[in-house]
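user: Here is a favour to ask of a fellow structure person. I have my own habits and do not want them to colour yours. Could you put it straight underneath, so I can go through it closely?

assistant:
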Amino acid sequence: PVAVRQHFVKLAGGKAARIAVLPQASSRPDRGQSSVNMFSELGAKVFIVELKNPKIARARLGEATAIWFSGGSQAALYKALDMAGLVKFIRERHALGLPIGGTSAGAAVVSAVMIPAMPENPGLRAGNTPTTPGLGLAPGLIIDQHFIARRRMNRLLSAVLDYPGLLGVGIGEDTAIIVRGKRFTVMGENS
């Protein structure tokens, strides 16, 4: 929703916002362009950061006042960031206060524990949901996206059974959470 986008631009610096879009979750040729358009319409300076040259990518991310992860595959996104040596850098920038957000895979990748795929067998039981490390920017959470539309309750609850010290957060369409420290608020149109 526009209110969520406006809030992110405000966190990124308002009219001085420089938002770096990391589109590596997608393999589409126009990947990241919809995110660029979405934030440009609100007055932010927005640029896509490709990872072919990790040194240049790090420099571009260093210029950003916020980072946005677009949708696709969270596993592909994390792998691309890891292979470019940017996971630690992104964590460090976030720890210093850099706002980081994302949609779909971009939301899931910020979890401490990430759900990269659907379980082979549906059902609610421990050990059923595949998990991998996420960026850990929301360290106490396991975030799952498209929660209601794609019926992911059992997938998330199974992951929480495997990690009982973490809170499972299922985010529906047109909805976001804003995480600050150990708390988050819900913003948007659904649950």
